[in-house]
Amino acid sequence: MNELRDESPLALSRPDLMRGQNFINGTWCDAVKGGWHEVSDPATDTVFSRVPDSTAEDGKAAANAAARAFTSWRNVSARDRSRLLKRWHQLILDNSEDLARLMSREQGKPLAEARGEATFGAAYVEWFAEQAVRSNGDMLVPGMPGRQQMVVREPVGVVAAVTPWNFPLAMIARKIAPALAAGCTVVAKPAEDTPLTALALVALAEEAGFPAGVINIVTASRPGTPDTVGSWLNDPRVRKLTFTGSTPVGKYLARASSDTLKRLSLELGGNAPFIVFEDADIPAAVDGLMRGKFRNSGQTCVSPNRVYVHDAVYAEFVEQLKVAVEALTIGPAEREDSLVGPMINGRAIEKIERHVRDALDQGATLITGGHSVRNEIADGPFYYAPTILGDAKESMTLHCEETFGPLVPLFRFTDEADVINRANDTSYGLAAYFYSQDPARIWRVSGQLEAGVIGINEGVFASEVAPFGGIKESGYGREGSHYGLDDYLQFKYLCQGNLA
């Protein structure tokens, strides 16, 4: 049950990467209570594997192992930690095709995208391998004679990482790599829909030679997750929690971990505006929207959710966008020409349908799409046609809720100040995009948009060298870049006296 079926077009060249157990203290093991959780292929909605359905006992065992390992791992030299991370990075690259196939099988994204994610996730491991030897402190100018004052950086401690289903490799790499580089140990819980990629990634980390207990990973079903993660929230040895997911869950984790005053990194929901000004390069704006919106079939937290188009270029933009959207190929991952895969599950389809129905009821214009898809190519229940809705209004549900699917609602505007106010009219602040060729407007608008990441004439901006994170109810903390290492380090001030 823990290997892909031989007839699968996404079969692995290394079946040993298909793991179906928790990894605790350097050992692959079943859940303490023996429970199992099934993993389905969203392209067909058929079960093809299973993993442990862990409980608090498994979470505690992982935390125990991480706490014991921390006492020695924190003292491993930065250069040696860097070498291990570089070995892991190379193993990810060497096995990227299998990782991509596994990712596509459990998440549904087109294989080309999964290959890109494997390389992208590996880039974070490489980046933090290099940053491990650069976590320098500071020598301070003494405040008075006879003193030496300095600041050193030390690892926070045990880190709990809880990751989402939409980027099952990149998200866990982006969290584990800086933790290990800083000298922290890790307990991790991947999303219940996509645990297999994370387990394979940890199997490669084991192969790279990380000591027992430094990385621990447990899996759990949707009902079992609160119990498993809850064991870490109340554990004072777990000093940091890093989470990517919905804002309601992020708020719960912040409240539940407050008694132990954990350090938190929360990358939460988004409601990204995408603004096309009258002076925009329209073909470039259409291309940027296509790449930003339909990556992972719209199932990304930075996906443009509200598209504002100036009246003067609205008709031209719609014409070009419609042609581009209708050229997208819908199908399963194993087809090399697939550009839009299935949604992750039935709940995702229901949300898209609800948003489309509500918008049409309120007067939106259906430009293309607007229906589920099932045919001889996309033969499964979770496919939805890429959809454009015109004449969207702020009263529609899709304005205030993140759709998380291949739906583009178009809002008209005529005034710069008005569209900025409308773009900022959300409790979220993760990403925003705008297209303009006016240098003064570029600086003016980028300074007024309320988001942690701004795409200016660019639809895809993720990079290991840049800090990623949001403001307002999209969370706090940053991942990636040299800033991303700071979230796993604490500062200690040393003052030595009587030196005169």
TrEMBL record:
Record key words, sorted: Oxidoreductase
InterPro entries membership: Ald_DH/histidinol_DH, Ald_DH_C, Ald_DH_CS_GLU, Ald_DH_N, Aldehyde_DH_dom, Aldehyde_DH_Superfamily
GO function terms (MF aspect): succinate-semialdehyde dehydrogenase (NAD+) activity
GO biological process: gamma-aminobutyric acid catabolic process
Domain Aldehyde dehydrogenase span(s) in chain numbering: 37-493
Pfam families in alphabetical order: Aldedh
Coiled coil, from the record: none
UniProt-listed Gene3D superfamilies: Aldehyde Dehydrogenase, Chain A, domain 1, Aldehyde Dehydrogenase, Chain A, domain 2
Catalytic center residues: E267
The family this protein is said to belong to: Belongs to the aldehyde dehydrogenase family.
Name of the protein this chain belongs to: NAD-dependent succinate-semialdehyde dehydrogenase
Lineage of producing organism: Bacteria, Pseudomonadati, Pseudomonadota, Gammaproteobacteria, Cellvibrionales
